[in-house]
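can u do me a favor
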């Protein structure tokens, strides 16, 4: 996956969801070969020539200005997350791939995550690799895997390739899957030179039709705070908000805490699950 192609794919995906009528343009040809806004309709609204915009989508305009990107974003109706993603993709296309630093989790962060007993927590890398987790996170997100196994899972790979297990863990698996894809798109925009990330995307495109379909839609989210209903076979529905906290070195790693609303039924259920896991871990 090259940065220039990612930029073009993102712009095409956003053109596809905008109709000429929404921008006050004449309907034109009723049956279009592809849905959405055409390049020749978008370009003048953004104040650039059709040729320039075409070259931008093709990765041949490496020095595009922030003003032009902002103008294109306004025409396409991009939200704040999508606008930031557009700028990252454009910068990556201009500078070319750079080798990403190896994934190494600081020992202090690992110990912090593993010591938490009252809320699910894990540390994840830019590719979605779980770098550390606690027992609550394991019980909610990967009960079919060994907690102390030799290799921690990649949560994106697990959600798509272990669907016989993971679909039953979420009230809305499709939304969870879409958020997973948005996470990888965001990482690819920030770390286009990460060969492991590219290999993961290629693997999932080949093995998962669900991933391939969502990938072409190019969902984008900062994934900083997401509310989701989790399903546990014994404790029922746990409504938790995932708060993603980036590590200080900002190499794509972060710690996610999954918290219920204080005093809610989910908080009561989570306490019961935590107590159960603590008792189980204390048994010889």
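np, heres the sequence
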């Amino acid at each position: 996956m090259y940065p220039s192609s990612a930029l073009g794919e993102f712009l095409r995906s956003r053109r596809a969801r905008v109709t000429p009528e929404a921008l006050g343009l004449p309907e034109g040809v009723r049956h279009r070969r592809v849905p959405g806004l055409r390049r020749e309709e978008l370009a003048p609204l953004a104040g650039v020539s059709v040729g320039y915009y075409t070259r931008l989508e093709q990765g041949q305009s490496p020095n595009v200005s922030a003003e032009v990107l902002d103008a294109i974003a306004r025409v396409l109706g991009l939200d704040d997350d999508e606008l930031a993603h557009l700028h990252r993709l454009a910068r990556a296309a201009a500078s070319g791939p750079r080798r990403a630093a190896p994934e190494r989790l600081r020992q202090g962060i690992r110990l912090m995550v593993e010591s938490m007993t009252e809320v699910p927590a894990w540390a994840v890398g830019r590719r979605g690799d779980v770098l550390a987790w606690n027992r609550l996170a394991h019980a909610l997100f990967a009960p079919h895997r060994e907690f102390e196994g030799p290799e921690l899972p990649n949560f994106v790979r697990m959600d798509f390739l272990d669907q016989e297990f993971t679909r039953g863990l979420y009230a809305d698996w499709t939304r969870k899957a879409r958020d997973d894809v948005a996470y990888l798109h965001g990482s690819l925009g920030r770390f286009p030179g990460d060969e492991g990330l590219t290999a993961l995307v290629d693997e999932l495109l080949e093995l998962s039709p669900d991933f391939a379909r969502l990938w072409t839609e190019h969902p984008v989210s900062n994934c900083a705070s997401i509310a989701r209903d989790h399903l546990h076979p014994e404790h029922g529905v746990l409504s938790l908000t995932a708060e993603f906290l980036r590590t200080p070195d900002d190499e794509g790693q972060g710690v996610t805490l999954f918290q219920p609303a204080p005093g809610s039924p989910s908080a009561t259920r989570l306490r019961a699950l935590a107590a159960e896991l603590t008792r189980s871990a204390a048994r010889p």
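Residues 67 and 151 are 46 Å apart (CA to CA). hope that helps!!
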